[in-house]
Amino acid sequence: MLAAGTQVRCNWLDPSMEGGPEPTESAAKKAKIDSENEQAAFAQLLAAAKTCERFQVKGPPWVGWVGGSPEVPERHGAILRAVSESLMNRLVVLRVDNFPGSGDPVFGTRHELRRSFRAPDFFGKLTAGFKGTSGCLKKVTLQGGFHSASSVCNFLHVVKPQLESFRCRGCLFHGRNFEMLVKALSSASQRSLLEFETDAAIGGKDPVGLLADSFPNLRMLRVKYMFGEADHLQALSRLTQLRRKQCVLPKDDFRLCGRPAVDPEKGIVYWFITSEHHDDDYRGEGLWWDELDNTMECSEMWYVGKGVTKEKCLDFMKDCGIELDDNLTDEECGLQDNELQGDVDSEVDQDTIAVQLEIDDSAGSTGNLAIKALTMDGREFAQVTLDANKTLVRTLVDELASKYPCSPLAMRLVLPSGTCIDALETAGKLLAAALV
Fold first, then answer.
1. What are phi and psi for residue 43, nearest 5 degrees?
2. What angle do CA 409, 411, 413 make, to 5 degrees?
3. At CA 258, angle to CA 204 and CA 225, rounded to 5?
């Protein structure tokens, strides 16, 4: 963890767990926070956050399967408290690099749901712990890694920052969550946003038009792989303040094309994708999907889980602006009989643990709920108070599972009405929406 003046930078994981050294800087520019005494280091981090204007959280250099990044509750809790503290004070710039989280499920398979539930959720936890307002935050930059789009949207709705810059490189966006994220971003930043960047492949009817209508004062727009059905030049003409030299706009030869081949028994999608610009040297640029593995030039393996079909993949291709090349065969896409390749969904569902909830909505301010959790034989094992308007279901489930104790994946919540909530299927929902 490093702090200097109004800047703070810290590693999400301990450097010894990443296999790399703690970042070093010139002593004249940076003062290294004492890491020998962890508690003292956390206290110094929190103190630095109160006057911090720029905060950077760095994940591991290489972000792979989320199970490879173990959760360290004390360290991660301290970092999130520090970011939240800076948000409520003087934070202007927030940057998160290579965060080892997970995107939201695309198809809703059990494999996607498990992965999403187990992964750390930076913006979900940050929002749950946020109190007050943020009048200073102007720039958010996400570089690499994986984030839940639902949690980012919830963060924007709760914190309501009037951003001037929102940049995502190698993460977050795809064609299916684009509209949701833009609407959430425009809810507080419609007039203030001057810079928008995503290098994700995005399609749909008129994505550039949506940006033009949502952020009429844009000066910088970088959307290299954005190809909707409508002519983007017409939408660009409405952005009268654009500074073209700072922009990266779609060029026809960058438009992706290809075809999926699905192995439904293993839950794997094989892709052949390229563009005129890349020819035979395409390596997955613009495709920031969880567990997508570039196996060779123009070839991808996507570990999605059982339940995915070719029709679902074709719909997703259209959302991402990828043209279909129906001349390709399954074999050319990479599908082949490979007995060594195991099933994605080899994990067996755990035994279900039902938990009865008693809910009191009179606990203080609007949205606050006092929740008692009982076993089905009536033994109370937990009491928590949460703001239902900014807390995700997974936050409640994690809290209850730690006190039971049991695996969060096994837990089913039974409401006073008798309705049962599946923790996996509702993990990304706000508690207020799930309890309706």
1. -65, -40
2. 135
3. 45
Angle at 117 between CA 342 and CA 408, to 5 degrees: 100
Task: Give the single-character DSSP code of 115.
Answer: H
pLDDT tens, residue by residue, 118-153: 899 999 989 988 877 777 999 999 999 999 999 999
The residue assigned the tokens 């035994």 is 351
Q: Residue 8: left if φ>0, alpha if ψ -120 to 50, beta else—which one?
A: beta
DSSP string over 34-91: P-SSHHHHHHHHHHHHTT-SEEEEE--SS---GGGS---HHHHHHHHHHHHHHHTTT-
Q: Which amino acid is at 300?
A: E
Can you tell me the distance from the alpha carbon of 145 to that of 96, in angstroms, rounded to the nearest whole number?
9
Going 168 to 171 to 175 to 181, the CA torsion angle's sign is negative
In single-letter form, the type of residue at position 90 comes to R
Q: Which residues pair with 337 in a beta bridge?
A: none
In total, the chain counts a number of residues equal to 436
Q: What's this model's pTM, rounded to 2 decimal places?
A: 0.88
